[in-house]
Amino acid sequence: MDGLKIAVLGPLRAWLDGREVQTGPAQQRAVLAALALRGGRVVPVQELLGDIWGWDPPASAAVALRNHVSRLRSVLEPDPRTPVFLVSESGGYAMRLDATALDAARCDQLRADAERAVEADDPERAVLLLKEALALWDGAPLTGVPGDFAERQRQRLTETRLSLHESHLELELRLGRHAEAVAELSALAEEHPVREGLRSLEMLALYRCGRQGEALAAYRRTRRFLSEELGIRPGPDLVRLHQRILRSDPGLDPSAVSVPQDGRPVAPVWIPPAQLPPDASDFTGRTPTVEQLSRILAGAGGRPGGSPAVCVVHGMGGVGKTTVAVHAAHAVRELFPDGQLYVDLRGASREPLDPETVQRAFLRALGVPALSIPTDAAERTSLYRSRLDGRRLLLLLDNAVSGEQVLPLLPASALCAALITSRTPLVGLPVTSRTALEPFDEPEALALLERIAGPDRLPREPDAARVLVRACGFLPLAVRIAASRLAARPRWSISALVARLADSSRRLDELQAGGLAVEAAFELGYTALSGPEARAFRLLAVPEAVELTPGSAAALLDTTEDCAEELMESLANAGLLESFEPGHYHYHDLLRLFARHRALKTDAPQERKAVLSRLASFHLAGMSNALGTVNPHTRLLTAMGPHIPGGPRFKGYDDAHGWVTNEIAGMLRLAVQMADESAGPIHSDDARVLGRTLALLTQVNDYGLDWAPFVPLGQVLLDEAEVGDDLPALVNACAILALAHAAAGEYEQARGFARQGYATARSQDPDIRHHLAQIQGVVAAMDPNSVDDPVAHFANAAALSRDAGDSCFEAQCVLGLVSIHLARGEAAEALPHCHQMLALSETAGSAFGIALSLRHLGQVLHDLGRPGEAVEYYERALALCDEHYMPAQRARTLLGIARARFVDGHRPEARASAVEALRLLAELGDADQRLASELIESIDAASHVP
Questions:
Q1: Is the pLDDT of residue 55 over 90?
Q2: Do 854 and 884 form a contact (C-beta atoms < 8 A)?
Q3: Separation of alpha carbons 176 and 376, rounded Å
Q4: Is residue 454 predicted with pLDDT exceeding 90?
Q5: Which of 581, 578, 645 shows the shortest CA–CA distance to 614?
Q6: How far apart are alpha carbons 492 and 460 in whole angstroms?
Q7: Is 439 helix (H, G, I), strand (E, B) or coil?
Q8: 3-state secondary structure (DSSP) of residue 765
Q9: Quick count: other Cβ atoms within 10 Å of Cβ 15?
Q10: What is the pLDDT of residues 774-792, one digit of tens each?
Q11: With pLDDT > 90 as the criterion, what percentage of the chain qualifies?
Q12: Has residue 693 got a pLDDT over 90?
């Protein structure tokens, strides 16, 4: 008897080379049991800590675990210095045992051999094998071993032993040995009064022994126990057997039923299963979802015929799918008196359960002895659906991977219902409803935090609580972990935990407690990906992109748009990307962190930098195409540098406008990320691309640019241009810095950069001088104490634009003249410039320029005391804003209409326009909200004057 042997089917014991060894104190035995019963699988340290100490192990637990492992090696290993049984691997431990070294594994093998013997029509051998399996038991399994894992295994192994007894005795009855089996059956049935299968076998044995009265009395005891203790009635199989015994059914005679040819039991044994996991006592939120699921499930079982109710709840890992499904199932369980079946299909793991295994488990729960379950898939499915037919059963199929896995498990009877959870929507599966579960909203997240952490915590730190749930991405699992950590440490403040989560590189490490971990939930989905999917998942998270499209993803991954979209669809189906409209994808905040961690571990720095460079080039190509679409006559594109191939193509103004609107935030984030000094110096090629992109962004007038990031970005780009003596890049950097400093109210710096850029452009490229001349005018106009004359700068810029043949940009320069005259109260001087600007915009075919010209014409006419004419121009401008989606221009045009109508005495119409303008400006976060509010107050005050 060589090697290591371990016994768990009784007190935990171990033998090395035939000599029993001491397994140590209770916690040490718990470590041994947790490893021995994992079948050789590597168990992560965190999982082991949860097995032994529960969901919140003490700080010393990891050290204690190492000590326990060391002491176990000293007694279990021939040479503890080179362990061969208890090994360390991949951040965890594993127990490497021979196939028969663990008594529980030997028991499983004997049971499987017995099943094969029945299939081979050899019940005598099956009985011997089952007796050998039962002989391995030595009392209650894992006696004296502490911990949640040991308790779960104790329950599982106890159930296994009862199942072995049941299968053994059922075979004995088939072989006509009812007299030998009846005493053991009676003892087991009394010991386990809720197991109707044992009671059925006992009644059958008693009847065949000529003890019909005792069989009927046994039924009455079970009926009374179930009614008084559980408030339920015996199941239909037990009731049918009782009725057959009452009428002395000849089919129960042992001479007629020795060993059936089909290998199935004579009297089907079934008890109502109640397998639902416990409902969460702190269940919070999700009211509409639970109500909808309950309503659909409650509609099942109303009448025979039709299709069963099948509901799918899908979403990313950690979003609470199982919690919601279990809660909804408990809400309707009383409507399914024949029981509830539950299985974790392990769909997010590398080894999901196959339907055959689940069918076998469900059939055993439905009273079919294991040795009577057909091996043929079609026969097994037929038996499975026959057992479901006519009963009101609820199936909870948790964590499904595909429709193919689930389809053989669905009932055919409309009296049944199935509730399925999955990370994918299980497209193609015939279902009654699909519910996409999303992260909590803020009130739901705060409610769960309060319920777990305690009601006195949030009122003391409401702001910190909101920051905390945002740091958790409103993900229910993350919020639960954070709240559990606070509950376990009553002296911690919420702010203290917020501080620990502030470092994004450590946030996932902090979001774990005991057996719960956000990273572990994500890891399950990630490890199931194919190689290309895993690469896409990592690299798409490298940039600070707000949103991903097939175009930007194709640039990131260096592939085609079709291939990129196919990969993103696969990730979305796996619950690793979110997509709320076709062609648009984004990460949940915590999933992005997880993906980046994997990229840092897996992908070389050069590859991650190349990802950013490709995306920057895509943005530049897109901005160039957009500006070329909006202003086909512009010379800026060629003046700023060579054409960048690729990028999105646009059908017209609206298309280009929509793309730029969606991409602006991502462009700025990417620029900040690439210019970040902590990531190393920016490459000159990247700096040149970013400079051109940002310079083109400064030409955007209706997108509400946030200028704050432009100052540090421009400085990085300027420094790189000066080092590389790159004059075109220097011009772009100066243009960016001039406008950014002016927006920040730093006019002296703005003026200096505008002059430097204009001087450099004049000496380098006449096609870009008008751009820098216009920027000089903008800076001078913004400075209330300007030493420059903005009119001169705008006039110069207009003349240079005219020489360059750029009518659209000339219109922008003339707009500067209009704005200056209006600011000075010189409406008459502004009027011809407005007409000039309108003509230039019409020549250039710029819808934006035309709308802008019409709006300023309305403003000039209003200032000239002609409000009626002003409204006509405003309404023409408004029509263009509506047609081409220009929200900021629309708001300001409505504000102009409101002013003109108010002056003209049309107060109700004026107020309606002002209210609509205020709504739009509020949505845009525009500072002109104040002007709209003041106008509404003036209209209201005038309306109440007697």
A1: no
A2: no
A3: 27
A4: no
A5: 645
A6: 12
A7: coil
A8: coil
A9: 16
A10: 888 888 888 888 878 888 9
A11: 28
A12: no
